[in-house]
Amino acid sequence: MSTLEIEQLSKSFGSQPILEQLQFHVKEGEFVSLLGPSGSGKSTIFHLIGGLYKPDYGSIRLNGNEISGQKGSISYMPQTPSLFPWRTILENVTLGVELFEKPDKEKAKKMLERAGLADYIDAYPHELSGGMRQRVAFIRSILSPQPFICLDEPFSALDEFTRLEMQKWLLSIWDEERPSVLFVTHNIEEAIFLSDRILVLGSKPAQVIKEFDIAFDRPRNGELTLTSEFLD
Ligand code: ADP
Ligand code: MG
């Protein structure tokens, strides 16, 4: 079981209120996307959920337990992924798992191969492009055994073709393992393609100003075709 309940979440930086009384829930096994303009506070929400920032007010509950200010309760891919420069790519993807269990190196290698990184398994982060590093950070987050995954613009640095491949991969993982996913993107097509539900944030301070249920039955596993039903 993995549910997230955000209630009355408030955060200011200096005199600037970024989040004020923000409220939303993610149900067990649900895929929810957060859309909103740049600077609206999406990454700040993720920093709070990931325990990197403490809220000024309000609560963040995972499966009923308060997790604000606690790191390591969820799997979290930040918008600017930080890889350890002195560790190989394989070590970088398995490091997160090591906190919980002995990493399955073969599985990690297969994932790197699937992401087009077969030649970079023993390379170091500086040898990779930004898009490659983004895929490494994505694999690190999906390898983590936690059932709640937060992904902050995970595919933003990828070309359209690679992005589609990664989207299909994420959906196939979601189909098989059914984690709860909270996904930030600027790309409305991506949000429609992937999500059960979309929350649109307005800014200053951030509030959920619109909420869409994706009403149609989303096609599965690589048989994905984009539909415009939602936009009518
Ligand atoms: P988004 O991810 O939606 O683009 P962010 O959450 O990164 O937005 O930023 C929301 C606002 O909070 C911006 O105005 C940003 O400048 C400000 N902000 C974010 N982090 C900090 C920080 N550590 N200190 C001061 N201001 C911050
Ligand atoms: Mg951001």
Kindly report the average pLDDT value: 89
User: Could you state the order of secondary-structure elements as H and E?
Assistant: EEEHEEEHHHEHEHEE
Q: Strand portion, in percent?
A: 25-35%
Instruction: Give the C-alpha Rg.
Output: 17 Å
GO molecular function: ATP binding; ATP hydrolysis activity
Pfam family, one: ABC_tran
Protein name: ABC-type nitrate/sulfonate/bicarbonate transport system, ATPase component
Keywords: ATP-binding, Nucleotide-binding, Transport
A few lines on this structure:
Keywords: ATP-binding, Nucleotide-binding, Transport. This protein is α/β, with parallel strands linked by helices and 232 residues long.
Structure explained in plain terms:
By secondary structure, the chain is α/β, with parallel strands linked by helices. Helices cover 29% and strands 26% of the residues. The chain has 6 helices and 10 strands. The relative contact order is 0.19. Residues 220-232 have low confidence and may be disordered. The chain binds adenosine-5'-diphosphate and magnesium ion. Residues 42-43, 79, 152 line the site of magnesium ion. Keywords: ATP-binding, Nucleotide-binding, Transport. Residues 4-228 form the ABC transporter domain. This is ABC-type nitrate/sulfonate/bicarbonate transport system, ATPase component. Pfam families: ABC_tran (PF00005).
